[in-house]
Amino acid sequence: MNARWSISGAASARELGLAHRGACAIASGNGLEVVRLAFARLSAGEHPLDACVAGVTLLEDDPDDVSVGYGGLPNARGEVELDAAVMDGPTHRAGGVAGLREVRHAASLARDVLRHTDHALLVGEGALAFALDRGYRRESLLSPTARTAYETWRRERDALGREPTGLLSDEDRWMLPDTHGAGPPIPHTHGTVHCGALALDERQAACTTTSGLSWKMPGRVGDSPIVGAGLYVEQGIGSAGGTGRGEAALQSGAAHQVVRLMAHGLPPTDACVALLTHVIDQTRDPRLLDARGLPAFNLTMYALRADGAFGSAAIYEGYFFAIGAESGPCLLPSVGILPRPGA
Ligand code: GLY
Fold this sequence. Notes:
Number of strands: 13
Structural class: alpha+beta
Distance between the termini: 21 Å
Number of helices: 9
Low-confidence stretches: 1-9, 162-187
Order of helices and strands: HEHHEEHEHHEEEEHHHEEEEE
Strand content: 15-25%
Largest sheet: 8 strands, mixed
Oligomer: single chain
Radius of gyration: 19 Å
Bound molecules: glycine
Strand order of the largest sheet: 4-3-2-6-5-1-11-12
């Protein structure tokens, strides 16, 4: 482990997660209602993949969640582009869509890729054509709130003129540094929802869906639709998923690593911490480091082991995850590896 920092916080959540056994749904901190619904569906005997998708669809329909589905923040041209994937433990099959426009239910469409094609990922126009073939509704995904935020971001970006700071070059505005905590007036967001589910009969599945990085370069795809990065499931071992800076998850094979670490015996929280420790240590680009030399972004990982033990960790303190289980849905603190700047 890197000597620059030490692990803190969430001791009770870690113990709670380690002690838990049996059916369970886990989700990112925006997923309290997601796990409530997913666990109810699991309890009714539904397939865990359908339970996950039903849960995250709540957020894809929610205009107040600006990170997912309808109401998600758009790319630099004001177009909402969605990424999503699902993975089924028993069949070890996955389905995903990336750069999907004008169809809000990206998670359901990813499940359709899994169930109705021989492929694992459809992108852009092809994903949209598949959606329309399957009868999905075509609509604008830009909510009034997201449009206002976009217009504000455009005004502020344009006000930077030709003297932006922190860019790769004067011409290259795609390299704006990521922010954690204090940053530009309208910070970029990597908001996303991940949901993993363990059924009563021990089948496992997972789903991750997002509008991705706000104000992103058109065509930019994050970790969410990529199997092994934004989600991964291995029946009999466990599931994992992540939210936060997708590039960091992609470059570390994040979800796959967490599941493999569990396969080698690490408890869920420790597997998340180990992966994130690796991410911190591998973050060397000065553009991605803050004044302390620490990552200027966050990544949060969620893990659900085959026996029902669960855990979550984040690069920074202050993040939460949702659990749906017998005792009812609750939010728990993710183990934070680094203190927040200024804390
Ligand atoms: N983790 C979501 C994204 O970076 O697109």
